[in-house]
Amino acid sequence: MRTAPLSIALPDLGATTVLAEDLALALRPGDCLCLSGDLGSGKSTLARALIRAVADDPDFEVPSPTFTLVQNYDLRLQIAHFDLYRLASADELDELGLDEALEDGVALVEWPERASERFASDVVAISLEGIEATARIARIHAGPEFLERFNRSLALRSFLDMAGMSHAERRFLQGDASSRTYERIRPVTGNPLILMNAPRHPDGPPIRDGLPYSRIAHLAEDVVPFVAIDGWLREHGFSAPAIMAQDLDDGILLIEDLGSDGLLDPEGAPIAERYELAVECLAALHRKPPPECLQVEGREYHVPAYDPRAMQIEIELLTDWYLPWRTGAPVKDRDRADYIALWAALFAQLQSAEKALVLRDYHSPNLIWREERTGLDRLGLIDFQDAMIGPSAYDVASLCQDARVTIEPGLARRLLARYIAVRQEDDSAFDEDGFREAYAIMALQRASKILGIFVRLDQRDGKPGYLRHLPRIEGYVAQSLQHPALQPLRSWFTRVGIVSTES
Predict the structure, then answer these.
(1) What's the burial of 345, exposed, middle or buried (CB within 10 Å: 0-12/13-18/19+)?
(2) What is the pTM assigned to this prediction?
(3) Which residues of 202-220 are buried (b: 16+ CB within 10 A; e: fewer)?
(4) Could you read off the pLDDT tens digit of each residue along the chain, which spans 503 residues?
């Protein structure tokens, strides 16, 4: 069902470019944008600006498809740009590959009225009307699903305007496994910034004790945790990004861009020096008493505890998602019960482990290398909104068993030894044996959770790219199971076929 059309005034060519950027950031594969209007109304101008925004290149060559009828672009989004002015018959659309283009990408269609009967009612219809020399009005008719995305994009633009960033360039930066997305913002003057788009989403269905998964696992549901933890990290001398503007209720933050260099070399392999600084940064973080209650714009944010209930709901992702995918059969009741009981005993052991602020996603995608800085300031920290107070060993395991980058056992041992040495320099009573045991437990807990999450991302969310990381994580599982404290679980993993007897 369509709602009333949106009307957007385009007083000049710059406004058309802005509209193209806002549209580009709302697009998803399967979207078909039909551009209508008289000759000279600006259809091609809008299409070229949109393609260049997706390409992130103002000089990107966008030839007219007037004679070829279609031009294809393999960009962040695959785009097929159609011009149907010379179309002899609507049947020619089959030969031009419209349906195939919409399977994996986006179609921009000029002169759609030449084959109007071939376009479904759920297309995004954009009509452009010239008023004077360069002024236009764009009227956008679309279904509610697209309009929700586009209105969100317009809200982000409005936020930037209010933050003094009118006419700033917006470029897609990345999305993650959650619903958050990020944009790189290039103001007219000044350094680039990062826009975090994290609207609050309704909780999922209750799955246990009347609570949804996100509440049990203490996942951030808005941007307040990020702002709170960011302030605490910066107060204690860690390089978290400065926040330039924020709308806590609408889930929008404009933050400092710490850079794009990471911990990996051009081939994607770990740079040992950078990983060593990252583990030293953790040692410094774990020396700080963890915060319990933080203030954010007059609100109290209580940092949650990484408690056994949260850990248990996470490890059950392995039996709920990964194991049925791996074996092709439902998990037996006995296997599930044994698995949960074995973990419950380990969680009880962890109650005596050292507690610290656990950032939860302390690994290569979220660590920024700043070559021009010195000391711990060389390491920028991002993506810590799910931080909790829990076993300090968790983040060490997150770094040494990076889910997306293979950390060879030798480097992992070296990093673990460096962490322990730094902790012992400050505290001769630091319990190395206890920490190593907690490290093994938390490394396996984390790997078990991620195996389930990555299969869930494929099967539930249509994100199969995460499956390529499974062999690496399975290798980490085999490594962790070598610790004596995990021998009962090793027998279970062997019994259900995840780990071989030779591992």
Answers:
(1) exposed
(2) 0.90
(3) eeeeeeeeeebbbbbbbbb
(4) 556 689 999 999 899 999 999 999 999 999 999 999 988 888 999 999 999 999 999 999 999 998 899 999 999 999 999 999 988 887 888 888 888 999 989 999 999 998 888 787 779 999 998 777 778 899 999 999 999 999 999 999 999 999 999 889 999 987 655 578 999 999 999 999 999 999 887 667 777 877 788 878 888 888 999 999 999 999 999 999 999 999 999 999 999 999 999 999 999 999 999 999 999 999 999 999 999 899 999 999 999 999 999 999 999 999 999 999 999 999 999 999 999 999 999 999 999 999 999 999 999 999 999 999 999 999 999 999 999 999 999 999 999 999 999 999 999 999 999 999 999 998 888 999 999 999 999 999 999 999 999 999 999 988 899 999 999 999 999 999 999 999 999 999 999 999 876 65
Integer angstrom CA distances of residue 304 from 307, 330, 359: 8, 33, 12
Q: Which phi and psi angles does 391 have, rounded to 5°?
A: -60, 125
Distances (CA, A) of 298 to 107, 229, 301, 394, 483: 47, 15, 10, 31, 46
N-terminal to C-terminal alpha carbon distance within the chain? 56
Residues 204, 202: Cα–Cα separation, whole Å: 6
User: What's CA 22's distance to the chain center, in Å?
Assistant: 20
Total Cβ atoms within 10 A of residue 325: 16
| Cβ neighbours of residue 130 closer than 8 Å, sequence gap 6 or more | 37, 38, 40, 41, 42, 136
Beta strands in 336-446 (DSSP E): 355-358, 367-369, 379-381, 388-391
Ramachandran angles phi, psi of 343, nearest 5°: -70, -35
